[in-house]
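From: lab user (bench 3)
To: helpdesk
Subject: output format question, protein + zinc ion

Hello, I'm new to running complex predictions and I'm not sure whether the block I got back is the full result or only part of it. Here's what I submitted:
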Amino acid sequence: MESWTVPPPAVLEGAGVPLRLHDTATGEVRPLSPGPVATMYVCGITPYDAAHLGHAMNYLTYDLAARVLRDNGHDVVYTQNVTDVDEPLFERAAETHDDWRALGSRETEQFRSDMAAVNIAPPTHLVGAVEAMPAIVEMVGLLRENGATYDLDGDMYFSVSAAPRFGSVGNLPVAEMLALAAERGGDPGRPGKKDPLDPVLWLAERPGEPSWNAPWGRGRPGWHVECSAIARSTLGETMDLHGGGTDLIFPHHEMSAAEASAALGVWPFVRHWTHTAMVGLHGEKMSKSKGNMVFVRHLRLDHSPAAIRLALLAHHYRPEWEWTHEDILAADARLSRWRAAVALPAGPDARGVMEGVRRHLAGDLDAPGAVAVVDRWVDEALRVGGRDPAAPATVRDVSDALLGVLL
Ligand code: 5CA
Ligand code: ZN
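Helpdesk reply: Thanks, we reran it on our side. This is the complete output you should expect:
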């Protein structure tokens, strides 16, 4: 499906700082080290409702990673999926007497508009599950051929025992995996499974639900294989970076990796797993299912998209945090100061700003540290001024290229 577009970012002089990122699988912050082309995949939305600030924080994380990689001279090939076939979508469509396809395409369009407004760099490939069905069927077929599947009353399951490295993305104890599987769409209690953790790979056709043809019978795919198949069909058998929120570490990413390894015989499927911490509201994870959300679309009515972006940039992607109205008020004030400072005819020397922003972002995407570097220059520019006529434009370019904040 169509991605979205944003204005091309400024290109900075000199060399960027190579990216170091936290990797969930090893628990370390380590260099990403891609080749000339960096490949990345980020788990996309399930389009049954509008994008909230948790989603925006998630996509901002990988937008920053892509900016740093480009600043280092890499071409970035970036895939994001759209889970346009899933139960929440069918349920919402049934509640509102809507067509699930119409609901999905409407919400996907709203998502594109919100992401473009907040200047989130678009993925190279935005791929829906519906359009990827041939690739998904092919991946399920490979798993069947490799003996990694079994039948349970007409549904097909993936056997986690077919993936010797199963468990090595999240490194979680079995009891925790069982609890999370039950909580997050798995069915560990279904009788007849070989291992309670085995995820469904292909659900036999159910009355009233959409289904697709496959050599083993009509039905629809399980969730995890959607992402491994879309990644494979757009990026190849392995990739440099795979991202999403921490809510996806288990079961989604663990299962996607296990299915890819059992289908393709590759390991690691993903060289670097990165996860954005959950953004909360009123003491709980902001989520569609809990209904405690602040939508990007609503904030856009009263605040500039650059301020929304700055509000998110004030938080690092790894610790959990809670959105409050103070976040956007502080960002409005910061944006006004930054804009006033870059509008001056001259300012203090800005070479340290470029170097500092590059260094902070390259160090595990320390956006708050990078914002503080700009703040210091802005404070000095507004308080004591400066003599360098090129400095305001340099700061504007750094903000545009690396932080994505258009001043
Ligand atoms: N379609 C699947 C991924 S294949 C899905 O999880 N969709 S979603 O709409 O629920 O979430 C989209 C992305 O936003 C996921 O990467 C998810 O981890 C992330 N996300 C969801 N809620 C939050 C939150 N409160 N804070 C941060 N990230 C979040
Ligand atoms: Zn996914």
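A quick orientation on your result: The radius of gyration is 22 Å. Let us know if anything else is unclear.
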